[in-house]
Amino acid sequence: MPSTTSTTERGPSGANVREAQRLETRARVFAAAVAEIGRSGLAGADVSTIARAAGVVRGTFYFHFPTKEHVLVELERTEEVKIVERLHSSAPAARDLASLLVALVRQVVAAERRLGPLIFRDMLGLHFSSTRPIEDEIGSHPLAEFVIAAIADAQTAGRVKTDANPGELGVIFMTGLFALLATAGPASRTRTALLDRYVTTILEGVTAQ
Predict the structure, then answer these.
(1) If DSSP states are collapsed to H, E and C, what string results for the chain?
(2) Cys-Cys link to 71, which of 33, 42, 103, 123 (CB 3.0-4.6 A)?
(3) Chain centroid, CA 22 distance in Å
């Protein structure tokens, strides 16, 4: 009598196993690449060293990441998702725009401490580099989307000028923040004060009177 046991009940299919192996290999390559860039910087990071650390051949790196820059783009997206989740979980619904932006800046600075200054600076500097993957646009980033939504909400509540464009303002805010963090030197009281003034200056230009 034919078996009625489904493929799923028998266990994972060959395609599922291969996909799981591909994802596991990609995760190893990504972790090794992040570690190497954190030690040597983007320019100094060696793909052969990354491949050896991940236990793969050099070509496997390029199979998963066309360039080292793609590793930093993915790392940035991952960190931004974490930051947005923290902001959503900690922010009351009625929190004002100024508090949200200050909290966002503090979370970005915390990410700098987690990642280390070398890889963080390279990650931000990539926004202003000709080697940044062309398919990556700052306006589609989780943090930019969070800022754009926060500005739009404040505009709806009458706290931001009606003629302001939330999409443009969000991109301008994030681009300026990344530029300051990439050029203002290591964390210090002076840099913290500069970042606070930046938030204040942006808000003064868009707040409804």
Answers:
(1) CCCCCCHHHHCCCHHHHHHHHHHHHHHHHHHHHHHHHHHHHHHHCCHHHHHHHHCCCHHHHHHHCCCHHHHHHHHHHHHHHHHHHHHHHHCCCCCCHHHHHHHHHHHHHHHHHHHCHHHHHHHHHHHHCCCCCCCCCHHHCHHHHHHHHHHHHHHHCCCECCCCCHHHHHHHHHHHHHHHHHHCCCCCHHHHHHHHHHHHHHHHHHECC
(2) 33
(3) 23
Would you say residue 113 lies in a domain?
yes
Asked whether residue 80 falls in the same domain as residue 124, the answer is: yes
* Containing structural domain, residue 199: 68-206
The predicted-structure confidence for 32-54, as pLDDT tens digits, reads as follows 999 999 999 999 999 999 999 99
> What CATH number is attached to the domain comprising 194?
1.10.357
**Distance (Å, rounded) from C-alpha 12 to C-alpha 124?**
41
State pLDDT tens for residues 109-131: 999 999 999 999 999 999 888 88
Taken as a whole, the chain contains a residue count of: 209
The number of beta carbons lying within 10 Å of the beta carbon of residue 196 is 13
**Residue 109, token pair as written in the block:** 């600075």
Predicted TM-score of the model (pTM) = 0.85
CA angle centred on 83, ends 82 and 87, rounded to 5°: 120
For residues 119 and 30, give the distance between their C-alpha atoms in angstroms, rounded to a whole number: 14
Residue type, 94: A
Q: How far apart are CA 143 and CA 124, in angstroms?
A: 13
